[in-house]
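Entry type: protein chain
Record version: 2
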Amino acid sequence: MVNQNLNQILEHFHENRLSHAFLIETNSQEQTLQELKQILKEINCEQEYKIDCNYCNLCHMIESENLPSLVIIRPDGQTIRKEQVMDLKKKFATMPIYSKFNMYLIMNAEKLNLSSANTLLKFLEEPETGILGFFLTNNKENIIDTIKSRCQIITCFYDKREGIDDLTYQLTIELMTEIHLSKDKAFLYNKDKVGSLSKDKLQKIFCEMIEVYFYYYQQIIKKLEIEKYLEVSFLKKKTPDYLMKQLNIVQRLEEELNFNVNLNMILDRLVIETR
């Protein structure tokens, strides 16, 4: 099922008022990417859209990222280079053959440097018919203003507690409390209770922390009553900027867990960087 906030893209399409560019702030860019693919399949379908239909090859090309009119740009190292954007412009110089739209998705859009961002502005300032753009980021405040002001902004939050057991939840809350309140004792907590966990277990803790930070960020931004996660209610005194910085740190370290890294080193960095 597509996230409710993302679903408004489909609603606008069917109402013939689809924007040409979207800035999507999310706590899971990969999950958002998968759901955007689902949306693009329906938008570009020439038939009556059905999930896993067998009438054409369009859905398979979108899913495998082999559709010529779909370009997904990911950072090359620490930045998204101007050359990547230039290649995009060359590909979109002609009308699409297999789909209704030429479509581009920019992952980690905050890594557009000034040069690459300026190269993209033509798509945004003088939008051509048949081009759709999506900018994905963990924090929209890190996006260059000239891009942000020309996009429809969508916040897409996922509940990551699925599959989180009570022990993992308890460890998560205790670790966050140690980091924010005890500070110096957090290293000892890591060593005694968290350091012996498997990578999978640690990833679940990080996923839970991401949800907690994002939850408080959303509640404070929207000025809503905070009812969940009362055990770490001290976070409601923090600013949105502080919470987003914490979230970004945890997300970055969680991504590093996918590589062959020392888990105890990751835990130590978690304490150091979030302080």
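Comment: Strands lie at 21-26, 70-73, 102-106, 131-137, 152-156.
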